[in-house]
Input
Amino acid sequence: MGSATERCESCGGDATDVVPVHRMYVTPAAWDTEEKIQVLDEVERWCSPCRTHYPHQEVD
Ligand SMILES: [Zn+2]
Output
C-alpha cells in the first residue's frame, strides 16, 4: 500500500492532497455591473493545483 490517492473532480487527476471545496464563479466587474461571486452549495473534491488556479471556498 502506498499513500492513498483520490480523484480530483476538477481536473480528473489522482492526487494525495484532495480536499472538499465549494466551487465559486466570479464575474468580474464591468462598467455597468458590480463584481458578482456565486458559491455553489455542492461539495467537490479538488487537488492542490486546482485550488491554486481556480476560485473556490474550502469546506469547514
Ligand atoms: Zn485537480
